[in-house]
Amino acid sequence: MVPLAPVFLDRPIAHRALHGPGRPENSRAAVRAAVAAGYGVEIDIQMSKDHHAMVFHDYDMKRLTGHRGPIQQRTVPELADMPLLGGHEGVPTLTEVLRDVNGAVPLLIEIKDQDGRMGPKVGTLERAVAAALDGYGGPVAVMSFNPHTMAELARLLPGIPRGLTTCAFKALEYPTLPATVRSHLRAMPGLAEAGASFISHDHKDLDMPEVAAQKARGLHVLCWTIRSPADEAKARRIADNVTFEGYAA
């Protein structure tokens, strides 16, 4: 197990960076704002058509750029020329964001599932993330909802802390996942085998016995996504740190 550095626990973590007016989520502007404020930064990673790690949350481009279609159908140059709605910059690469952070604050990287069913068809995006992180000296940790991705990251990045993004996997929130898969993921599989040192759990379900079990094993518990001081205070009864947005944590 690679321990999570204390710096990931001593300050709130800005969800999709410190986004707001003029600073779209997961944008370089939002990242720079989080760094200036001294917050940790959480970002999401999707893959471009030419197999680069892109800082972007959704599978489809519409909500964040106004252009329809999967991000996997766009190349890095095309994405660079596609401004995020509410901002002036295109979709950034992970390499660009690493330059902006430059080790100043902790960086929590969530790799989005590319299998479609949280299954074993992984590797290409994980290798792109590993390539981007090669030589990066700042505090960084990686995580994913997909336990196969976490296992692949353990192989590719054995010296970097890794964790599992977790929740109750309710049917209404994950309608594309079969009940058997949701039940499997709810049990938080693969944590010990992959040497995970933390989970990042949905704050609404922090009272799940699975969370208590992992905390008893010595894993740190982060949580997502806190949107008010009241929710933060409640979450901190269990969680070691929060991922927040929409208020000054």
UniProtKB/TrEMBL annotation:
<dbReference type="GO" id="GO:0006629">
    <property type="term" value="P:lipid metabolic process"/>
</dbReference>
<dbReference type="InterPro" id="IPR017946">
    <property type="entry name" value="PLC-like_Pdiesterase_TIM-brl"/>
</dbReference>
<feature type="domain" description="GP-PDE">
    <location>
        <begin position="10"/>
        <end position="249"/>
    </location>
</feature>
<dbReference type="GO" id="GO:0008081">
    <property type="term" value="F:phosphoric diester hydrolase activity"/>
</dbReference>
<dbReference type="Pfam" id="PF03009">
    <property type="entry name" value="GDPD"/>
</dbReference>
<protein>
    <submittedName>
        <fullName>Cytoplasmic glycerophosphodiester phosphodiesterase</fullName>
    </submittedName>
</protein>
<dbReference type="InterPro" id="IPR030395">
    <property type="entry name" value="GP_PDE_dom"/>
</dbReference>
